[in-house]
Write a structure and sequence with these properties.
The structure is a homodimer. By secondary structure, chain A is α/β, with parallel strands linked by helices. Helices cover about 30% and strands about 25% of the residues of chain A. The longest helix of chain A has 24 residues.
């Protein structure tokens, strides 16, 4: 395994009257022997510290060289070889930043931590923040505030990661940042204005790696900062990380990668080709619509079943805590259960007089709502409910999801049954029951073992970029060979979307394993 | 002629839903077609301005690419092609900064100017400034003050150069800096401490080119700053410029380059090999020792002759102004004249009763002095005199000079007669009469046409570096192939020095064209 950074043992002949080579030139000369004769670059701010450390170490010690894509850079000199050289893998999420400290020498993970994204104060979601970026607060641009805010969060996370290991953040000599396209823009202080406006064009998708000091990051000033490239406004570096982490780009058999949040991003491909698309899935799957919806946090109902005979509800909360709300996977289970128990029909509408719902349906405004957890069991002393509105939102989300999968596979003439594996990224992948998603007609009716949760693949990809030379090469290949399909204007997608707004689907033959409760 | 900077005409397809390439990626893609598929680097601070200018120009216009040694960098984008793109060639002298503005597109010189080096306030000569660099003034290091001071001088010069052309300094997109090794250290804010201490080692001889903003230069933020490499503490980038400007490195026949100031730097070589050395010549040749000595400025006696029969003195001042003092070339003429008129002997000592000196010799303290210009003719109403002490200093300088030339040619087994040409750089080369220097035994007794004045070759070399691609390649070759001989510890030099302390030399056969006045 070759890493981004290498330490080279140096023993140079000390200067003399017969050898007046400059200090830095002397060091570079010895180094170039290790680098196939290539002369490592030394950035202006590193000249003095490196040359001084070299002289003070008696012209011997360890030279730290970072392999930038355009060539090696000599960045530091140590009298003694450091035992570890930390790098930071950062998943730059909209709500949270998750980080891992890895040792660039051994590739080992040293520490993990997470912090909130401080930008939340300026807008809960991406769209609100893009709008905020264009405003002015006093003399500051919203963009500057968003940038400063995420920088502060990153510094907080770096401090948290290093604290336990008795390191300083300035010891961190590399960082790989993986996030959606908008977060990458905020991080790089780039104008996100066009990201959310047709035709949805980023300022840039593939930033060149740069040094920490160029952005004012409080890491080692010469630390290499690698921002995962994106493919478009709605297909960010976090997805490229997912491809790298899943190995989709290396597989002989065709696989699929799904990442679901407010948007659903999907990649299909193998080692020969990759096709990607993204589409709005609606916030239902992030717990963002249901009145009782919540993120996958302690107290969230992540799984539940409804007895098809007597309508009894059994559920499971994250951490086993008293129920506080329902997260995305809980909503999917619940709606699938409501359908199997015939409490809702194929359109997702409540059937008012279904015995299995006895005592649990009540009228809210001019529609119905279902009591999942009665007030006396719930953490906040209020019943946890699912309304018709919530179900309608989920129906749109699941329809969007399935239509996206159909459209993209159809683009390349691959049927669902040809998919060797379907990787499901993130919290959604971790918590979802693929079986219940199949019942809803959200995911294709395939053997359950096809579905493989990936975990935080944005984070995992960033780690690989720091520790695995081949990951960086793969990343470049992925970006150059991936084809992006824009769904916003795709006619086929719109037609398929209509067909998917039933449980499991208007074409029931697509879901042979799901009972058909077609009668009203 | 290929220049450091190129403008490429760009007409990109505007973004659309079917083509979601990021703005900067779109531009880089078109550019890479011009660059043999190579992807130009965009430094972080240039992303936003370049991408914005590209979009605002409707995705067409002119991309500015600077060819850094490690690859092309996309630095700016213009809707209209600029008529000129200025670059600044800077001779960073100890007392003066001379600059030329050149058009990087056509290679033409647009403007020339010069300013004083503001560092003079901290020390008149290099050594004083090196000592000052190590001091503290309040909380600031002397080095910081010296750096700031030279930056201010450069900014002043840049302003002066651009003012006449109605340009801004921020239009300047390249600068080549040519100066001695110490001045290069001050410019780069590097510690000069070891430059003047055995074994005289620079922090670095060959800085990598960098961007103006990295040093806080008030030029175009992405302007490439190219510092001419040095060979050692006493052989600076100004000399490498001299080699480039003279073409020494390209000639089939062996030539010599001499640059004389307080130090004498000498290069001998041809297109196959180069050997260099430097030695202290003493300040006599810079007008720094003689009480009436001065730089080659208006009112300085630059040439004079003494009638060998009647001792009449005729002289010529710079600008024809009333005489104020004597510059280096005037001192050489004068001492040669004193020797030819037998007023001094072969040791350079006054002969008290020589009739040609009648009325011009007077006693000063316990030695004699010669009246060059009587008080009534002189600008300041005081006689301009040359004392025995002044002559003694010149004798040491001329002996050092000749010994350096002998030692270095002997190192490579080349006799003086094999030298096709001897280039004499700087003010010394411009003003000196080689014939009088030969009489003194300072320069070898060769046909006068061998001696070729070079002018400000430090400046000329810097200009070539900006306008001629091959000059940059030659510069790299010169640095890699030049051999530096340290004279400070050279036994041979010391022996030759003793033999050279007579006029013209103890071995008179070396100077057949010079009358021998050997008798006391």
């Amino acid at each position: 395994m070759q890493s981004l950074l290498k330490l080279y043992h140096i023993e140079a002949k000390p200067p003399s009257l017969g050898d007046n080579t400059g200090d830095l030139d002397r060091l570079k000369k010895v180094l170039s022997g290790y680098l196939q004769g290539r002369n490592p670059l030394v950035q202006l701010p590193r000249i003095a510290p490196v040359a001084e450390a070299f002289r003070q170490s008696g012209f011997k010690g360890y030279a730290a060289v970072i392999n930038f894509p355009d060539g090696p850079q000599l960045v530091d000199f140590f009298a003694q070889a450091p035992e570890i050289v930390p790098g930071m893998a950062l998943d730059l999420g909209t709500t949270h930043l998750e980080g891992a400290l890895v040792d660039l020498l051994s590739g080992k993970v040293l520490q993990r931590a997470a912090v909130e994204n401080g930008q939340i104060q300026f807008g809960a979601d991406i769209l609100a923040r893009i709008h905020f970026a264009a405003t002015k607060v006093g003399k500051q641009r919203g963009l500057d505030l968003l940038h400063e805010s995420v920088m502060a969060s990153i510094h907080g996370l770096a401090a948290e990661l290093t604290r336990h290991l008795k390191l300083k953040t300035t010891h961190i000599m590399a960082m790989c940042v993986s996030g959606n396209t908008t977060m990458a823009h905020f991080f790089l202080k780039q104008n996100p204005y066009h990201l959310c406006r047709e035709p949805y064009i980023p300022v840039l998708n593939t930033p060149d790696p740069f040094s920490a000091s160029q952005l004012g990051l409080d890491l080692h000033p010469a630390a290499i900062i690698w921002v995962m490239p994106s493919i478009g406004s709605y297909f960010g570096g976090d997805l490229i990380s997912g491809i790298i982490a899943s190995g989709l780009d290396q597989q002989g058999e065709t696989c699929m990668l799904i990442d679901v949040g407010t948007n659903a991003e999907v990649v299909v491909g193998n080692r020969d080709w990759l096709i990607a698309c993204a589409g709005a899935a609606g916030p239902a799957l992030e717990g963002g619509v249901a009145r009782m919806g919540m993120r996958a946090e302690p107290g969230a109902i992540e799984h539940c079943t409804i007895d098809t005979e007597n309508g009894n509800v059994t559920y499971q909360t994250i951490g086993g805590a008293p129920a506080r709300g329902i997260c995305g996977s809980g909503v999917i289970d619940l709606v699938a259960g409501l359908y199997l128990a015939r409490i809702i029909d194929i359109r997702g509408k409540f059937r008012p007089n279904q015995p299995q719902a006895e005592g649990r349906l009540l009228t809210q405004g001019d529609s119905l709502a279902y009591i999942v957890v009665p007030a006396e069991e719930a953490a906040l002393g209020e019943p946890i409910m699912l309304s018709q509105i919530d179900i309608d939102a989920l129906m749109r989300s699941k329809a969007a999801m399935y239509s996206i999968l159909e459209t993209i596979t159809n683009q390349v003439g691959v049927s669902f049954h040809e998919l060797h594996r379907i990787y499901v990224a993130g919290a959604f992948g971790k918590h979802i029951s693929p079986r219940q998603a199949i019942v809803l007609g959200m995911l294709p009716d395939l053997p359950l073992e096809v579905y493989t949760p990936l975990g935080n693949s944005s984070q995992a990809g960033a780690e690989l970029m720091l520790t695995d030379e081949s990951a960086r090469e793969r990343c470049r290949n992925v970006v150059s060979k991936i084809t992006y399909v824009e769904l916003n204007v795709n006619q086929e997608f719109m037609i398929r979307f209509s067909g998917s707004r039933f449980i499991p689907h208007t074409d029931h033959s697509l879901f042979p394993s799901v009972p058909f409760h077609g009668e009203p």
